[in-house]
Amino acid sequence: MTDLSQIVKAYDVRGVVPAQWDEPLAELFGAAFVEVTAADAIVIGHDMRPSSPGLSDAFARGAAARGADVTQIGLCSTDELYFASGSLGLPGAMFTASHNPAQYNGIKMCRAGAAPVGQDTGLADIRARVERWSDEGAPEPVAEPGTITQRDVLGDYAAHLRGLVDLSGIRPLKVVVDAGNGMGGHTVPTVFAGLPLELDAMYFELDGSFPNHEANPLDPKNIVDLQARVRETGADLGLAFDGDADRCFVVDENGDPVSPSAITALVAARELAKHPGGTVIHNLITSWSVPEVVRENGGEPVRTRVGHSFIKEEMATTGAIFGGEHSAHYYFRDFWNADTGMLAAMHVLAALGGQQGPLSQLVAQYDRYAASGEINSTVDDQTGRLAAIKTAYQGRDGVTLDELDGLTVTADNWWFNVRASNTEPLLRLNVEARDTATADRIRDEALAIIRG
Predict the structure, then answer these.
(1) What is the arithmetic mean of pLDDT over 254-261?
(2) CATH 3.40.120.10 fits 156-254, yes or no
(3) What's the CATH superfamily of 370-450?
(4) What is the pLDDT of residues 408-452, one digit of tens each?
(5) pTM for the complete prediction?
(6) Strands of 257-258's sheet, edge to edge?
């Protein structure tokens, strides 16, 4: 029996091409996607990886064979695919492995309006069909197969974003953008065209072999070039996009990273100015400053688990106007509750360009605490180590524990969260405190238990 458990993840399909999956399998995924979503039309996009065009064409053939009309938008960022799904009202599929190395590829799928497809919302059903068809053969094509047509939506995507954040009146800014040879090199020139921005473009050539550095700005080594360029050129800020350009990281005029929590708080304040009294979602690893800023600006913060399916579900349930994660995913009600790093970057540019001070000064009001960042530890027994931490802190005076996502331990002047990785034998630790000395002490204390 075919087993696709190694490539069908919680939220997407991802694996090595062609060792774990290939074009014939992509064709079956296209057919299954149409059956599960009951779609009569879909939209497909892909990133710059060498395997992406072939895989996306195969998916299109499988979808058309089940009767769906297919619109291919070609090279695009993941949030551009979400735009197409939302604006056209069609289920969508994006071929990308985000920040993974070159030999990987994957599929991010959504229903019409960019609603996510995860394990509980169709992905398990899609996997079951593909596994069955791999063994028994694909179903016969329907009597009237669908059509496959091409459409360019980049200009419409850029216009939509520029309609949400007005940058026309900002002071001139010098911005360095590191696209990491990913899809930011495709979208940024069109989105930023004609704005009062002096753009210093780094690694804009689309190259799925990632010749300069991995397209994963969450790893500090991958923003070193950006930091150096900002310092050398006296730029106002730097932006780094991941491979499929749905996440954006920011560095200030000194080349220092701005935490995604500070960006979440800044964007939340701006969105609340547009939508007074709105709800803002934040995952449980974002800084204490996020709910504080939301309340200070008249909003209602809602804490949720880590992961885009949880954020999007909570946004749909609460009607939230915005959501942010510590991993630099930013979600907007005005963007079909989908995540778009580009729109977050535009908010930062608007905030910075709307006043005279430097970015470091602007974000200081949103960056109030000392944080460890995410620290990964390889462990033999995730459950046992989590239990040991729980035992160590349970019953301490002034300390509370909750298990919304992993284990969160909270005191008056510090908190930490420990979560197990779904895919690796790791525990992930995040610590925050009111001062650096306390953050360091709690970090060391927790790590001593985690690492035994």
Answers:
(1) 97
(2) yes
(3) Alpha-D-phosphohexomutase, C-terminal domain (3.30.310.50)
(4) 999 999 999 999 987 789 999 999 999 999 999 999 999 999 998
(5) 0.95
(6) 197-202, 173-178, 237-241, 248-251, 257-258
Quick one: tokens of 397? Answer: 């005076």
The CA distances from residue 326 to 216, 354, 401, in Å, are: 14, 25, 20
| Residue-wise pLDDT tens digits, 212-229 | 999 999 899 999 999 999
- Listed residue (280, 260, 281, 258) closest to 271, CA to CA: 280
Alpha-carbon gap, residue 433 to 417, rounded angstroms:
12
> In one letter, which amino acid is 81?
L
Q: What is the pLDDT of residues 42-64, one digit of tens each?
A: 999 999 999 999 999 999 999 99
- Judge if 260-364 and 370-450 fold alike in CATH terms: no
If one looks up domain 13-152 in CATH, what number appears?
3.40.120.10
Confidence of residue 34 (pLDDT cuts 50, 70, 90): very high
Which sequence positions are flagged as catalytic? 98
- How sure is the predictor about 310, in pLDDT bands with cuts at 50, 70 and 90? confident
Cis peptide before 18 (omega within 30 of 0): yes
Q: What percent of the chain clears pLDDT 70, i.e. is strictly above it?
A: 100
Domain boundaries, the chain: 13-152, 156-254, 260-364, 370-450
Cα separation, 31 vs 54, in Å, equals 16
**Structure confidence by residue, pLDDT tens digits, 371-388:** 999 999 999 999 999 999
260-364 belongs to which homologous superfamily?
Alpha-D-Glucose-1,6-Bisphosphate, subunit A, domain 3 (3.40.120.10)
Q: What is the pLDDT of residue 452?
A: 84
C-alpha dist (Å) from residue 320 to 281, 313, 334, 337: 7, 10, 10, 8
